[in-house]
Specification:
This protein is an alpha/beta fold and 185 residues long. The protein has 4 helices and 8 strands.
């Protein structure tokens, strides 16, 4: 794996870099082929908390996890644990269905952090400013598969193409823990 390690309000020392590469590198044992994409690691410090965000884009899967902790090394360990759980979940629940049908597996992940920042900090007087734009292919699937994808990524919503209607749909997690579905009329 190739690493792109950045620090915000933090100097990325050789020791931190080696620790991140060692821990994240252990994830390679879960893959049949070596990961050829670049692993993006963002380390940051906010007040007394250290935050790490790891994104591993691959051909048919996007792994992403973030963690906050007072100890940077503990945060690194926790984020690697989250990524391991995502990989195991992918290899069991989600991938089993598609292997039987012979179709590839697709995953879409959204950054919800920016949406939460907007909710927490934006006022109605401010001009609307779009600070990030993403483009992606919507893959056909059913709502159950979309919920599994959303849960695997740890997000609150997931955008996909409904395989039956060929329309764009959104599944989301409600505050009561149940799921909602948004369909065009």
């Amino acid at each position: 794996m190739k690493y792109n390690i950045r620090g915000e309000n933090l100097e990325v020392t050789e020791a931190i870099k080696d620790y991140v590469e060692k821990k994240v590198g252990k994830l390679e044992r879960y893959f049949d082929e070596p990961v050829t994409s670049e692993v993006h690691v963002n380390l940051s410090v906010y007040n007394d908390e250290q935050e790490i965000e790891v994104t591993i884009p691959m051909k048919d899967l996007l792994l992403r996890a973030e963690e906050r902790h007072t100890d940077l090394y503990a945060a690194i360990d926790l984020v690697v644990d989250k990524l391991e759980r995502q990989i195991r979940k992918h290899k069991t629940k989600v991938n089993r269905k598609f292997r039987q049908e012979g179709a590839p597996k697709y995953v879409f992940a959204e950054l919800e952090k920016e949406a939460q920042e907007y909710q927490n900090g934006a006022s109605e007087d401010e001009d609307i400013e779009i600070v990030r734009q993403k483009r992606f292919d919507l893959k056909p699937m059913d709502s159950e598969e979309a919920v599994l994808q959303m849960d695997m990524l740890g997000h609150n919503f997931y955008v996909y193409t409904n395989a039956e209607t060929n329309e764009t749909n959104v599944v989301y997690r409600r505050r009561d823990g149940k799921y909602g579905l948004i369909e065009p009329s």
